[in-house]
Amino acid sequence: MMQFQLTDEFIEQVEQLIANNDDETLTSLLEEFHFADIAELLHELNTDEATYIVKLLDSEVTSEVLIELDDDYRERILDNLTPSEIADELDEMDTDDAADIIAELDDDVQKQVIGHIEDEEHAADIVDLLRYDEDTAGGLMAKELVRVKESWTVAGCVREMRRQAENVTRVHSIYVTDKHGKLKGRLSLKDLLTAPGRAHISEVYIPKVDYVNVHTEAEDVARIMQKYDLEAIPVVDDNGILVGRITIDDIVDFIKEEAEKDYQMAAGISQDVEADDGVFKQTRARLPWLLIGMFGGLGAASIISGFQEILESFPRILIFVPLIQATAGNVGVQSSAIVVQGLANNTLKGNILARLFKESGLALVNGCSIALIVLLISHFVFHTSYLESISIGAALISVILLAALIGTFIPIILDKRGIDPAVATGPFITTSNDIFGILTYFLIAKLILGF
Amino acid sequence: MMQFQLTDEFIEQVEQLIANNDDETLTSLLEEFHFADIAELLHELNTDEATYIVKLLDSEVTSEVLIELDDDYRERILDNLTPSEIADELDEMDTDDAADIIAELDDDVQKQVIGHIEDEEHAADIVDLLRYDEDTAGGLMAKELVRVKESWTVAGCVREMRRQAENVTRVHSIYVTDKHGKLKGRLSLKDLLTAPGRAHISEVYIPKVDYVNVHTEAEDVARIMQKYDLEAIPVVDDNGILVGRITIDDIVDFIKEEAEKDYQMAAGISQDVEADDGVFKQTRARLPWLLIGMFGGLGAASIISGFQEILESFPRILIFVPLIQATAGNVGVQSSAIVVQGLANNTLKGNILARLFKESGLALVNGCSIALIVLLISHFVFHTSYLESISIGAALISVILLAALIGTFIPIILDKRGIDPAVATGPFITTSNDIFGILTYFLIAKLILGF
């Protein structure tokens, strides 16, 4: 396909047209564009220019554009719109997107905007969705879906579906309910295409249907939809009444955000910061982790001070501190990453004792390989004594073993206590491994060198 | 929904039934299960037991089960099946899944299996898919799709679709081609439901359709489908002939794998290793990165040895080496993670000079905060002299600045040269920052303390 490429010339042209208030050329220029491309364009303009375009184009288009924009940038544009203008945009959106956007507004603006939404049923649906926590099925679902009653005929159903389909962007499944609205099953479009017109829905529908409750956690919804390869899943309330559906595209975003959150945590960044956020926001996300590392470093400094005799009698032991520290950190991060990912994917099996043995075995293989190389290099290149070399090698094996066990079990313990194990990766595990690693190093050196 | 929970009792029951060859009870017990749940069960059994179940159940079910299994485990089960048994399973699969599985087999087995596939058209489609690289649109696509010709009437189209839909699990879009098979546009089910039966397809179809070429890289396919919120995208060959389609569920898997790969790289693990892989496989994935860290540590050791005078005159400077190293590592990982994620999401904007200024500003804010705290603590708690404290503080600011710049620009440079910037995160950036950090520290100390 032709990939859309945003050129500097094009951006300049748009800016010029806005400056000239040349609405006609601007409209016909942007008419051909996909809303995702217009969103990309708006990000390159300043807020006033972006607002100009949002006000200019049809809200059928701009409602989709607004959904695509970054949260922060969208908020700034919405600040420039009146409640009635915002309501026009929300009128065109699916209820789930509208609810997400309205939730970002101040309480008093929210009320005004809702009052201006023309379609009252749509407004009521949005208000209803605002009740749910954003990390639950209720917070993810949309109200738009195609529902039919089990008592209808196939022909009547097709007629009714044509009417309902107007409001639904994509028909994934047709949900079948009893007369009280209780979810009974589903009907595939394929079945509907092939069933005789006079048959009743109750004769042709599939009574087996996966569903989630409004209070099911988003993470579980993602897991279920992935595991069972579902493109949409119906959502029921506590009485089994069908209240909404979640589609796979909402889940794709959720999966991506979760993966990014884990990655950022491992890198020591509080979630939700991007390369283009301001210096202050980035400092707030990054400084706390650096402070943890700093206190770890100060802890290491006081451990080294505590072994005053080494500083005096065996100064060559000190030059390998960075090696010990780097190894402890790397092993810890590796072990914790594997466990965190195993927990996230639900692929961590077997009991804790078996895992202990396995991690120990793995650490011993790696530890002995590295210890042997370092022992030889330290003795022949850095001219450490036999005993010093043996201290360094023995310390490396112990440090790798210890770091692997800390890296493996801290995430498992956190997970058992209901804490997100991803917080244990990155600076947290590196810092604790730095301290324990250096302490182990000096204790073993003291034991072997006998000072 | 009722979440499926695999209990130890249930596994034991299944194992007992297999040991007793009680096929009847086993079949009726597993009949009710979703294939994804059966896959979960098989992972808990040994290979022979799993093979027993695969042979026992209907291939309509087991073909789906096999797709769900981990690659390694599936290979072991397939080793226990004859080419004709494997062919029976592939007969039931969509072409994309069948091609993925057949690609894992040895060349001679592949040929035998293909010879045993009953449906010759299906076999030809699979062979055709094997030609494509797995990281391209051709490698992701399935041959199953609903296609109609623009010259048909709506009523004729519905008849023809009923026939084609038999082979297609999920109908996302109906693709419209000219009489030569060239992709012309698409038709939504909604449009088909609402158009009059006598109308020609050419009058009702949507000529605007996103598509990709068979050689488009998988990464780009994922980006396009996400950006434009597509649930399926048609694939054309170099002549514009419609040859397949890619659905969002294949992309979900791809997105997840990519995110995990980045995370594992940042943690210093070669891709594709899981908590339950064997010790040897894990060592192969982890040891290389530990060796990089080891050589970095040895480099640091030789830098410290080079500043012999410090070891003698200012031993207190040495106790802050872990602090310098930890800070350099943490800052580097933070900076690189933000850039790598920005590159992956295409959100990194602006020119390189602006980024240089911004990262420097950010590093100075963080650097000065940490330097001030450490300067005070080192002087009052660790009793370093004024000049020593100033050396430490000045070194921290420089090291943080340097680490941030290395962390930011190495990924950008790699990306410009077409190398995956994710390799630059983790041990790679930590190690280079360790070395440069410690070197900077001693150079500044030498400058200020004047030894």
Structure description:
By secondary structure, the first copy, chain A, is mainly α. Chain A has 3 domains: about 10-135, MgtE N-terminal fold (Alpha Horseshoe), CATH 1.25.60.10; about 145-255, Roll (CBS-domain); about 280-450, SLC41 divalent cation transporters, integral membrane domain (Tetracycline Repressor, domain 2). Chain A is about 65% helix and about 5% strand. Chain A contains 23 helices and 6 strands. The first copy, chain A, has helices at about 10-20, 25-30, 35-45, 45-55, 60-70, 70-80, 85-90, 95-105, 105-115, 120-130, 135-140, 155-165, 190-195, 200-205, 220-225, 250-265, 280-305, 310-315, 315-320, 320-345, 350-380, 385-415, 425-450; strands at about 145-150, 175, 185, 210-215, 230-235, 240-245. In chain A, the strands form 2 sheets. A 3-stranded mixed β-sheet of chain A has the order 1-2-3. In chain A, strands 4-5-6 form a 3-stranded mixed β-sheet. The radius of gyration of chain A is 30 Å and the shape is elongated. The N and C termini of chain A lie far apart (about 70 Å). The model of chain A has no long low-confidence stretch (mean pLDDT about 85).
